[in-house]
Write a structure and sequence with these properties.
Elements (H helix, E strand, L loop, with lengths): L1 H14 L2 H24 L2 H21 L8 H26 L6 H27 L4 H4 L7 H11 L5 H4 L11 H18 L3 H13 L9 H22 L9 H27 L2 H7 L26
C-alpha cells in the first residue's frame, strides 16, 4: 500500500502543472520514446552475461583477493566491451538530445552522469582484466548521486517513472517475451503521454464526489466534464490493450484479469457519467463508490521495467 501511494504521489508530481506540463509532454514523450527504442534494441543476452561477469569479478576479489582466472578473462573482457559499446551508444544519443534543452543543462548533466558512471566502471574492469593488475578499489561501483536529487532531476526532465529512468540500468527485453512486453510498453507510454494533459486535474475534480458518496451540491457540469474525459481515457486504454496478441502473453489468466479490471474502470466512469446526467441521488451514490484495487499489477505481468509501472490502474 505504501509503495502504491508513493507511486501515485510521484505520478501527480510529475504530471501536474496544467498547460505547462501539456506543452512539455510531446518533447518528453519523444525523448522517452528514444529511451524505449534503445532499451528494446539492447541485447538482453549480452547484459545478462555482463551481470554474471560482474558477479565473477567481485566474487574473485572478495573470496580470493584476485581477479578471475587468466583463462576466463578474455571472455569476460569481450562481454564487458559489448555491454560498454551499447551503453556508450545510448549515452551519445541522449547527449545529442540534451543539446536541444539548454535551459535544463544542469539536470541533463546529472542524468547523463549516471550513464557515464556505468561506462567508467566497465572501463575500469575491462582494463583490470586486460592488464592483470588487481586494484580492488577500481573494481567497485562508485557512490551515485543523492537519491532525492536524482529523483528531482528525473521529474524535471520528465523521466521519473518512465523509460529514460531505466535506460542506463535496464538489461533490455528477454527475446521470449519481447512481443508482449514491447507492445504493452508502447501502449503504456502513449497513455502516460495522454494523461499528462488533464488526467490529474480530472481526478482531483472527481475525488470529492467519491469522498462524499456521490453527494453533489451545485453545478454538476465540471464533474460531468471530468467524468466524461476519464471515461474516454479508460475506454481508449482498454481498446489499446485489447490489440495485444493473446498468443504473445506469457500468462493468459493474469492477462485476462488485468483486461477485465481495465474494462471495469471504463464501466465505472461510464456509470458516473450517466449518474451525473440523471442527477438521481441513488444512482450517484452507487456510481461514486470507490473503485476496486487492481489485483494484477504490471510487475506480475513482467512490465515493471516499462512505463506501465507509472500508470494508475
Amino acid at each position: 500500500m505504501i509503495r502504491t501511494t508513493l507511486a501515485v504521489c510521484l505520478l501527480v508530481a510529475n504530471l501536474a502543472g496544467g498547460s505547462a506540463a501539456a506543452a512539455a509532454s510531446e518533447w518528453e514523450g519523444s525523448t522517452n520514446g528514444l529511451c524505449r527504442s534503445l532499451i528494446e534494441q539492447r541485447d538482453y543476452a549480452v547484459f545478462e552475461q555482463g551481470r554474471k561477469a560482474a558477479v565473477a569479478i567481485i566474487s574473485a576479489a572478495v573470496q580470493s583477493g584476485s581477479l578471475p582466472e587468466a583463462a576466463e578473462r578474455p571472455q569476460l573482457v569481450d562481454v564487458l566491451q559489448r555491454q560498454r559499446h551499447d551503453l556508450a551508444a545510448a549515452h551519445a544519443a541522449l547527449a545529442e538530445r540534451s543539446a536541444q534543452e539548454p535551459e535544463l543543462a544542469t539536470e541533463w548533466h546529472l542524468f547523463l552522469g549516471t550513464g557515464a558512471q556505468e561506462i567508467d566502471l566497465l572501463d575500469r574492469r575491462i582494463e583490470a582484466l586486460a592488464s592483470g593488475r588487481f586494484e580492488p578499489h577500481l573494481l567497485k561501483r562508485d557512490a551515485g548521486p543523492d537519491t532525492r536529487a536524482l529523483e528531482e532531476t528525473l521529474a524535471e526532465l520528465g523521466f521519473l517513472g518512465r523509460d529514460c529512468e531505466l535506460v542506463f540500468s535496464s538489461p533490455g527485453v528477454p527475446s521470449a517475451q519481447a512481443g508482449f512486453i514491447n507492445a504493452a510498453a508502447r501502449i503504456c507510454a502513449e497513455a502516460v503521454d495522454r494523461r499528462s494533459a488533464t488526467y490529474v486535474d480530472d481526478l482531483r475534480t472527481i475525488i470529492p464526489a467519491i469522498v462524499t458518496g456521490g453527494e453533489v451540491d451545485g453545478d454538476r457540469t465540471p464533474l460531468l466534464t471530468a467524468a466524461q474525459a476519464l471515461h474516454a481515457e479508460w475506454q481508449q486504454t482498454a481498446e489499446d490493450f485489447e490489440t495485444i496478441d493473446a498468443a504473445a502473453v506469457p500468462d493468459a489468466a493474469l492477462w485476462g484479469e488485468f483486461l477485465r479490471h481495465i474494462d471495469a474502470m471504463a464501466e465505472v466512469y461510464a456509470a458516473r457519467v450517466a449518474a451525473l446526467e440523471s442527477g438521481d441521488p441513488g444512482q450517484l451514490a452507487t456510481a461514486f463508490r470507490p473503485t476496486p484495487i487492481f489485483a494484477v499489477t504490471p510487475e506480475m505481468l513482467g512490465l515493471n521495467q516499462t512505463d506501465c509501472r507509472t500508470l494508475t490502474f
